[in-house]
Amino acid sequence: xxxxSDLQMRxxxxxxxxGVSFSVRPGETLGLVGESGCGKSTTARAIVRLxxxxxxxxxxxxxxxxxxxQRELRPLRRDLQMIFQDPYSSLNPRQTxxxxxxxxxxxxxxxxxxxxxxxxxxxxxxxxxxxxxxPHEFSGGQAQRIGIARALATRPKLVIADEPVSxxxxxxxxxxxxxxxxxxxxxGLTYIxxxxxxxxxxxxxxxxxxxxxxxxVEIGDRHALYDSPAHPYTRALLSAVPVPxxxxxxxxxxxxxxxxxxxxxxxxxxxxxHPRCPQAKEICSVERPLLQVHRDREVACHFPLQPDDPSxxxxx
Length: 316
Ligand code: SF4
Hints:
CATH architecture of the largest domain: 3-Layer(aba) Sandwich
Bound molecules: iron/sulfur cluster
Number of strands: 12
Number of helices: 11
């Protein structure tokens, strides 16, 4: 469905995305995780071409769209849509909900707009009468449902959900995640699900990619990656996720990383994680590790953790 190769996104000296490569298979959910500022949202924006990449290729349904012109992108937008983090700021406050959901249908020249808007509202758990109201009249969760209806209006194949629940109350988050999962089953959607909340990513993803300072450091099957992380950064991220079982939680080792992630304007030489890595050795500050196949996943580390390393597993 999608193959991203060596994607680069630079803003002057800042390498926000620095050689990201991954593929997404039809019908799966790829989770993209990492601390804020690691480049995951910029990757998303480049894929849907809200930004033009400064390098690399984005093969979507067999076509490289990395540098396609807006005119060429229009027919592809039907199949490739995005759900944004903040539902309010992504919905035009001066338009009714009906107009907001109708926009992509009109742009794509799809007929029967009024009936389709009603169907879409129903599909996301709202009612057709909501079409005449304005975004501010809705709660955060309802506003995100409107954003989802808009994204699904053209019946896309690939949907990129950029932190779709992180601006919502915890009580509402599960409802929106459930809705996204239901819609995936009903419509056969493929998702890229971006979040910093690892519990949510674990729940929804088939495979997970972990980003650090503009690069993917580990990518693999969700179970394999959560049960035995191979990259020290993945292990540290997972060690911060609480475990529901209090007995396991008490025994759990938590890895506290020293310092903040370095600035993408001045990434450290070699492995960009080396100033914070508990496993770092001399070579790590000199030679950049490439993403390579290791056991059942790909890892960018000179000394990937082994499953029998007692500190590599994450209980629960
Ligand atoms: Fe740590 Fe070295 Fe692996 Fe980087 S390459 S994650 S510094 S062990």
